[in-house]
Design brief:
Blueprint (H helix, E strand, L loop, with lengths): L12 H5 L8 H29 L6 E5 L4 H6 L7 H4 L2 E6 L4 H15 L5 E5 L9 E5 L10 E6 L2 E4 L3
Parallel strand pairs: 3-5
Antiparallel strand pairs: 1-2, 2-4, 3-4, 5-6
Helix pairs in contact: 2-5
The chain binds zinc ion (ZN).
The site of zinc ion has 4 residues, from strand 2.
Length: 162
């Protein structure tokens, strides 16, 4: 873990407000590290090169939500098999606010590098394809890595828009 800290995947305003202890289990901690080492750190490094070349400011990535303990996962309406509950997913926004570029960049990078992952979801898109955040799932809790690209638009999952 180079460009992130474990705590970023654990802190949750909702957990705090509801006095839920969102401390990850040992296996969830291992999964978070595995996801960062194999997916998020390399993505962050490639994004930094892109941001420098395009002069679009900081390449920092903010984790909106990472690990969700069973109680927290239930509270946010997550499925019991959610990758978040296993420590295998993170919802991310680029600190420079370039959501559409980040979505396009991340998809191209995943395709170009052939890197293994489970799914990338452009979440809650507007009509122009701009997401509110991007969900990265590294593995399903059973270990599957489907390499799926989706958009969540008008409360439906569709093939990822441009
Ligand atoms: Zn998510």
């Amino acid at each position: 873990m180079k460009h992130f800290e474990l705590n970023e995947f654990v802190v949750s305003a909702m957990a705090k407000a509801n006095k839920i202890d969102n401390t990850p289990t040992e296996s969830a901690t291992r999964h978070i590290n595995e996801m960062v080492d194999n997916l998020l750190d390399p993505l962050r490094e490639a994004w930094a090169v892109y941001c420098a070349n395009e002069h679009i400011g900081t390449p920092a990535l903010r984790v909106l939500s990472g690990y969700r303990c069973p109680q927290l996962n239930k509270m946010v309406g997550g499925s019991p098999t959610s990758a978040h509950a296993a420590g295998y997913a993170a919802d991310i926004v680029p600190e420079n606010g370039r959501l559409l570029e980040f979505k396009r960049f991340a998809r191209e990078w995943l395709q170009k590098t052939g890197r293994k992952f489970d799914q990338m979801i452009s979440e809650d898109e507007d009509g122009k394809g701009v997401p509110q955040w991007v969900h990265f799932g590294y593995k399903r809790p059973n270990g599957d890595q489907r390499k799926a690209f989706k958009s969540y638009f008008k409360k439906q999952y569709i093939p990822m828009t441009k």
